[in-house]
Amino acid sequence: GAVVSQHPSWVICKSGTSVKIECRSLDFQATTMFWYRQFPKQSLMLMATSNEGSKATYEQGVEKDKFLINHASLTLSTLTVTSAHPEDSSFYICSARANVLTFGAGSRLTVL
Amino acid sequence: AQTVTQSQPEMSVQEAETVTLSCTYDTSESDYYLFWYKQPPSRQMILVIRQEAYKQQNATENRFSVNFQKAAKSFSLKISDSQLGDAAMYFCAYRSVFLQAGTALIFGKGTTLSVSS
User: Which of A13, A34, A77, B42 is most buried, taking the most CB atoms under 10 A from its CB?
Assistant: First the structure.
């Protein structure tokens, strides 16, 4: 079946640094990928829709300059959290559509 | 805008028993998809079941079945013969079929299901 790989699964960084999270579709091409954010015991909130070869579409309230999304190929989308702060600590999940929407295993970001 | 509501933050069930998780949604669209996803402690999202709005027949997947009431905009999940491995957070989700509206899933707040032996 379709597999979406996310890397890293867990990252700890210092406040003020930038962190990049990769989302890859391993056995299918994805012109569109989605990035979600999930706080503990809460729902998944859509952050942005990543479109291959064009700009991402951000949801209302999501800072574009804070969460940089690049979808440079049909199998890779990256989310860069720039100048991370403790309030950015969260679980970030990407998804892509093969026949059905497939989710990555998520990336836990902890900002000290 | 579409919304998904799960009114039960937590539910519990005993092994081998049946439990029903509730979900309601709001939309002005006539065609759409509805889903139930399971998120175990590993936090990997797992598709449990999917329903297409234009199909009147309720979807079933082994021990999992839905009660889809389109007029009432209700989409409940029934888990029969509950197993310890069913313990997880369950999310109800909606997806538009129209690309112009985007194809991202809209999630409810989730229901945490605990299963006791």
Answer: A77
Residue A26 to residues A97, A104, B3, Cα–Cα distance (Å): 12, 11, 31
Residue numbers in A near B47 (CB within 8 A): 100-101
The whole-angstrom separation of Cα A36 and Cα A58 is 11
Which of B32, B43, B47 is the best residue to mutate to test the A interface, defined by the most A CB atoms within 10 Å of its own CB? B43
Closest C-alpha among A72, A68, A60, A92 to residue A31: A72
For the segment B19-76, what is each residue's pLDDT rounded down to a tens digit? Answer: 999 999 999 998 999 999 999 999 999 999 999 999 989 999 999 999 999 999 999 9
DSSP label of A98 = S
Which residues in chain B have their CB less than 8 angstroms from residue A42's CB?
Answer: 109-110
Residues of chain A with pLDDT under 50: none
